[in-house]
Specification:
Rossmann fold; 3 domains; six-stranded mixed sheet
Amino acid sequence: MALIELTQVSRHYGAGDDTVHALDDVSLRIEAGEMLAIVGASGSGKSTLMNLLGCLDKPSAGTLKVDGRDVGTLSINETAALRRETFGFIFQRYHLLGHLDAVGNVALPAVYAGLDGTRRRARAIALLQRLGLGERLGHKPHELSGGQQQRVSIARALMNGGRIILADEPTGALDSASGAQLLALLAELNAQGHTVILVTHDAAVAAHAHRVVELRDGRIVRDEPTQARTSTAAAPAAEISARVDRLAAWRESVAVSLATLRSNRLRAALSMLGIGIGIAAVVGVMALGDGLQRKLEDNMEAMGAPTIDATVNGGLDRLLKGLPSQAFSREDAAALQALPGVAAARLQRSTMQAARHGAQDVFATVQAVLPGDLSRDRQLIVQGRDISELDLDTAAPVAVLNQKALDALIPAGQPALGALLMLGELPLTVIGVTADRSAFGLGGMTPTIAVPEATYVARIDNEPTAKNLRIYAAPGESTAGLMGPLRQTLLALHGTEDFLLRDGGQFDRINRDSLAGARKTLTVIAAISLLVGGIGVMNIMLVSVAERTREIGIRMAIGARPADVRRQFLIESVVICALGALVGLALPALAAQLTQWLDLKLPLLVGWRAVALALGASAAIGLVFGNLPAGRAARLSPVAALARD
């Protein structure tokens, strides 16, 4: 069985309304171990025949078999595998990748074969040393002479075994001395068992082959042996026998991506900046929203449990109608406190009186409290103690001052605890001092003196009712859900709606709804910015595909599948977006630090959720907007890609 067999093969191309017959009814057998030259004038069809022999193209008609396999029936991936495992290409212009050194270029075919990194590098080095390039391993193509670059391309052709070596005008870019060395090397490889196919227009080069096939106008016009000695060596077996490194292609793709970015720094930087601005907008919106959310929650926590305030409705409309208004009693408070979802209900008793300590005096709010009321209103005891049950039971003449009252009555440096105040004729002993933790807490803005409720009723105001009553919601309870039961209970107690209920939790809900609406609006704006950045990345990647078409052809020629090419460009797109995401994360993080440093009171909170969103969004953008360029690259024909200047 012939190694390669063509039976009545034709290859036609459409050229406008005409059809070009590049090959017409060609039949040819090539045996293992031959050194064959394909010659012919320009336009004779020899390049088309080489593309078919190397499985870079498929016939329009006829049958092409390699090792008995009909190439026309193979899938794209099967054809790529056949090229990778059987052929080694030596191109006239070398077609080395500029971002890789000699070892990297030689090892590239084995990446797509799945050879593990250690053995891949060892084999590449061994091949280069065998070809006399042991001192040029780390040199990149521009650092090598033409002859050295051609030797690197030969080593690459042998990397996966190279049973069949296809050399396209191998001496065309070399001087005579380098050309002679190359032909001697190809003859040596043939003697070792490699099947060598030369495509050339040079009769002197063709004379080194054992057989010459001449083409004219797409047909074979001559097929005869030469005077060169025919090799009798057996065809070499593929030399790769190693464990498969399934991550090799991924690592190669990432390395190529980074090298491409380095070689196009400005363009890459602009692309990353576009994505970075979009990510920064999204993360900034999230950071601002999270910061405002945290601040709102802190304020709500500082305000204590959500409250509902009941006030006697003594308005003009009731007076004109002659409708009485009933003040709130202890019984009202007890009935409301018994309702499900109510933590406490307190009559609000307070008055304004002059307080004096030594030579200091102040007009202060005197407030009647029960044990725990100060804590419930977010008044933090910072000195001494709170009002106790014993104080309440004995109507003790004790007082707790807020910071305003302390500053007005107690001179700096004097102890507050145990100080004696005069509230009119009533002496009060200071037992505690509070600091207001609430943004809107009672007593925070004015001097306030808290006394036990029993003391207030017995010594200050014995009126058993009050015009104001505060209801505290239980933890986790919505004040909106309490409004109905509270109203019904007070109606039953008073017989008429002579009261007004004000939902203190409504402020919280309004703020949360407003914040949610603002976040949605800003998120849409940020998403538009991110979309623009993604379009920019897609545009850059399309340019990259156009600029690197020949590189794509090289990769396909040495065995890359369309999926490998697609992965390469998708990874590049994701890498650009990921680096842009880091820029986008850095900007709001820096802004958050600056706002804290400058004390701008702008709450920016960049948390792990924002980081995860940024990285996830950037990866998604890279995949979505890189898909079109990656797909375009993967659909390129190897022949068309290699022919692109």
